[in-house]
Amino acid sequence: MEKWPGIWGSDAIEKMSMLVNSVLIATKRVSKSRSCFGYPLSIFFIVINEFCERFSYYGMRALLILYFRRFIGWDDNLSTAIYHTFVALCYLTPILGALIADSWLGKFKTIVSLSIVYTIGQAVTAVSSIHDLTDANKDGTPDNISVHVALSMIGLLLIALGTGGIKPCVSAFGGDQFEEGQEKQRNRFFSIFYLAINAGSLLSTIITPILRVQLCGIHTKQPCYPLAFGVPAALMAVSLIVFVIGSGMYKKFKPQGNIMAKVVKCVGFAIKNRFRHRSKEFPKREHWLDWAKEKYDERLIAQIKMVTKVMFLYIPLPMFWALFDQQGSRWTLQATAMSGKMGAIEIQPDQMQTVNAILIVIMVPIVDAVVYPLIAKCGFNFSSLKKMTVGMFLASMAFVVAAIVQVEIDKTLPVFPKGNEFQLKVLNIGNNPMNVSFSGEITTLSPMSQTDGFKTFDISKLPTISISSAGSPETSVAYNFEKGHRHTLLVWGSNEYHVGKDGLNQKPEKGENGIRFVNIYSENIAIDMDGKVYENLMSHRVSEYQFFPSGIKSIKINSTVIPPACDSELQSSNLGFGSAYTYVIVRQTDGCPHKEEFLDISPNTVSMALQIPQYFLLTCGEVVFSVTGLEFSYSQAPSNMKSVLQAGWLLTVAVGNIIVLIVAGAGQFSEQWAEYILFAALLLVVCVIFAIMARFYTYVNPATIEAQFDEEERKKYLDKNTLFGSLEPTTQTQM
Predict the structure, then answer these.
(1) How far is CA 531 from the centre of its chain?
(2) Secondary structure letter of residue 547 according to DSSP
(3) Among 83, 165, 51, which Cα is nearest to 647's?
(4) CA distances from 623 to 315, 637, 730 (A)
(5) Rounded CA gap, 629 and 446, in Å?
(6) What does the entry give for GO biological process (predicted)?
(7) Residue 277: other Cβ atoms inside 10 A
(8) Phi and psi for 514 in degrees, rounded to 5?
(9) pLDDT along the chain (735 residues), means of 10
(10) In angstroms, rounded to a whole number, what is the distance separating the alpha carbons of residues 342 and 195?
């Protein structure tokens, strides 16, 4: 009893009271001097930081699939696999960030440290996209692509560590800046914070694709990936600088220990203890976590029970994210086979992702203010888990629509040779009609005309091909045709012909247009089309294809035989998306050049606008699934374990992207629409399973449960004080 006065004596209490009062006064002064419109001034730095960081992340991610496909040269499946591996890492590393912040550095230092890593990663990724870095022969193509691959992988690894690591810290750090009694301001802060995320995402997915299609380079002009990646890198640097500038205004708390570690240890002990007492002589306990009571208090066990109950419901959720995150991979690749012309504007394939961001901004207030109240008025009990089930169903239907759109795209795609097949087209570039015979089947071509598309032949059953004109004998065409390729037979006389291999056995990538030239001048010519040069094109020969974006391009013919008075500058037609043309340069009677145009591959005709319904369905699914899921997790989590459930929620996103890796790697579908249907069917099955699980879920009120423990602890405390109160007079009397 002698120690009690030393601890709780009047001097100690007085000193403690003075200390608390001084801290409160100082806090009020700081809050008053560093507030703006009733909000801590520090949160404005945090909101700007989040806007810049989200601009950086989503701007970079919007380009990623096309960078893999077009710059590095990977096929669709490998590009999709690497893309989703990166996204999965971005949602796995938040667990690491939470551990670092809670156990070691604290939120502020964790954000600063990992933001530096993040900025370096963005810079390295931008450097990896500089084609001149290894382009020693200055032909516009990197000579050592492995250097670019290595740099990009290092950059993406650093980005995943940075963006994932700061994800669980920034919003919580913003919430820490508010004082007691500022709950209203804190709630508004989170709304502003969410708006900053969407604003950054929306602007970046509009701007960075525009930067990508610009041409830049030291020796040759290529799509400007360095600028498109460089701007997000610069925004990340700005994000870091802005956050550090506000350092003196932040309320910073020391690491308090990681609750996730306590949860893991408690669960581990319960499992181990249950295993030790697995024989029948030990009575069963109501819940398997009750086996941790020997070491851990009942409050912690009760809190973990609530968490594990919600975590069990998380098991089916990754399938939703497996579909949702394909906006940036499969759906973007789908858009490359479509036409981006929408009225007076032209959309790039990677800009279609902005539809989701735009619809989110529109749909969230409409659903909250109109849809949900209408459902409530109709008397339906539209609980959180029912909303999430509907969200899964809508996402599944979005992929059914994507499959229908893909079928429409496939109808417009040209047929290319497969296996032992080859294809042949005949182009008459002479001044007289020509007869072409395929094993006796004769086709007559008028001057400056071609056969109706490409004819397909089996190389093992090679037809007899011959040409002739009126009054002349047939001339057999001798050429070693190659399987799997298209060929063009140029004819201009009864015994004058040339066969050229097209070198284009698929639709032009990137939505660009392949252009090649045929020279009918008797001398060599050089052609400059929009900065790309076709050098020394021989007479009656066909050039290789070169590729151009949409629009009208200038064509300049250079030759010594063209009279000076001639206008040697021509114009292409208005190029669309994914087409291929042969331009025949004809010498007119006055010696001036003229262009004849022949279509080799039709441009994309299916409009990207047809993707809007699938984006609309997926966004509606996101609104009722993602937003509701976060609210549900928050409402069902104990006050000190909301970060644990947040980490679990982010983990479902990571697992969803891993599912895409498995399906894309193992599926190997010959038709893309079939893969879309598979994903839709899988999510539909999962939707049914989740609905059954939700049917048996019992909602809890963590605050009520924790209040019961608080009441029990208060009673124990009062009982203890009563005991000490009855003992103290007795002791004094005895003394």
Answers:
(1) 33
(2) E
(3) 165
(4) 20, 21, 67
(5) 67
(6) protein transport
(7) 14
(8) -85, 130
(9) 35 43 43 63 90 94 90 87 90 85 85 96 95 86 92 96 88 80 74 79 89 86 91 96 92 78 88 86 85 87 86 92 89 88 81 85 84 88 89 96 95 88 93 89 91 90 88 88 92 91 83 91 91 90 91 90 86 90 92 92 91 94 84 75 75 88 74 91 95 89 78 76 54 36
(10) 28
Question: Could you tell me which of 343, 321, 262 has the C-alpha nearest to residue 295?
Answer: 262
The tokens for 496 are 């004058």
Separation of alpha carbons 579 and 604, rounded Å: 7
**How many C-alpha atoms does 646 have within 13 Å on its Cβ side?**
21
Residue with tokens 């599926």: 667
Encoded tokens for 527: 């052609």
Q: How many CB atoms lie within 10 A of CB 646?
A: 21
**Cα(64)–Cα(51) distance, integer angstroms:** 20
Task: Locate 26 and state its tokens.
Answer: 């100082």
CB 643 within 8 A of CB 708: no
In DSSP terms, 582 is beta-bridged to 516, 598
Q: How many CB atoms lie within 10 A of CB 206?
A: 17
Burial class (CB in 10 A: 0-12, 13-18, 19+), 701: exposed
| Amino acid (one-letter) located at 275 | F
Q: Is 729 exposed, middle or buried (0-12, 13-18, 19+ CB in 10 A)?
A: exposed
Bridge pairing between strands 475-476 and 546-548: unpaired
How many other C-beta atoms lie within 10 A of the C-beta of residue 467?
24
* Cα of 732 vs its chain's centroid, Å: 74
Q: What are 679's two structure tokens?
A: 């994903």
Give the pairing of strands 593-601 and 532-537.
unpaired
What length does the chain have? 735
Residue 711 structure tokens: 């009441």
56, 120 contact by CB (below 8 A):
no
First to last CA, the chain: 12
Considering the entire predicted model, what is its pTM? 0.75
